[in-house]
Amino acid sequence: MTSASTGRSDDDSFGLDDAYAVVTPDDNRRLYAKWARTYDTSFVEATGYEYHERVADIFVAGPRPVGPTLDVGCGTGVVGEALRFRGVAQIDGVDISAEMLSRAGTKGVYTNLIEADLTVGLAVADNTYAGVTSAGTFTHGHLPPEPLDELVRVAMAGARCAVGVNTAHWTEHGFEAYLDRAVADRRISPYEITVVKVYAGSDPDNPNDMSNVVSFTVR
């Protein structure tokens, strides 16, 4: 039996409770080093996870310049697979976990895979990417809003971004105020929010089962 709110089945070793409990980047590395091998089966398949599909749908719904797309917090590559299925041809992935990146490399959808802690920075030149996507990274125990500045930095003018933020995390960490400042500073366009289910069986009244997918254009 699996709970959508915890992401844990009876025979899982890891689930969302473990992910939400991490505090430091090293905590993240340790958890995902252990979870990488079974993540697709013990979490994505077992919970009816569909978040990556919805983020990909929103990303491809708007125009973007010619150029590569960056999949932020790419994990084992489920977002990359969803993007490739929708016709996105050139995709790079970035993640803090070397083990998750190793699994992503088996999917055949990424041009480059980058190991990085986005709270420290990304060794990528300004204006590199025509698009940026992220699902499951801006959530409890993971990234606050500040790394969005780094994603905007590596995106070219006109780049389309579709970034999912857990709804409880959105409120707790002030994402709306942060994005409003970015709009006021003319770093990004006015943004749209699409509320999506994280799982096929998500409870709309449970903020951890829902996500705000923020879409905007880099200026």
Describe this structure in words.
α4 packs across α5. The protein is globular and about 40 Å long. The protein has a single domain, classed as Rossmann fold. The N terminus is likely disordered. The strands form 2 sheets. A 7-stranded mixed beta sheet has the order 5-4-3-6-7-9-8. The chain is built from 9 helices and 9 strands. With 219 residues, it is of the alpha/beta class.
What is the oligomeric state here? single chain
Q: Radius of gyration, rounded?
A: 16 Å
Name the structural class: alpha/beta
- What is the CA–CA distance across the termini? 46 Å
CATH superfamily: Vaccinia Virus protein VP39
The main β sheet shows up as: 7 strands, mixed
Top-tier CATH class: Alpha Beta
CATH-defined architecture: 3-Layer(aba) Sandwich
Q: Please tell me the total number of domains.
A: 1
Task: Note the overall shape.
Answer: globular
Fraction in beta strands: 15-25%
Uncertain runs are 1-12
User: Mean pLDDT score, rounded?
Assistant: 88
H and E order: EEHHHHEHEHEEHEHHEE
With strands numbered from the N-terminus, the spatial order across the biggest sheet is 5-4-3-6-7-9-8
Q: Share of helix among residues?
A: 25-40%
**What is the number of helical segments per DSSP (H or I, 4+ residues)?**
9
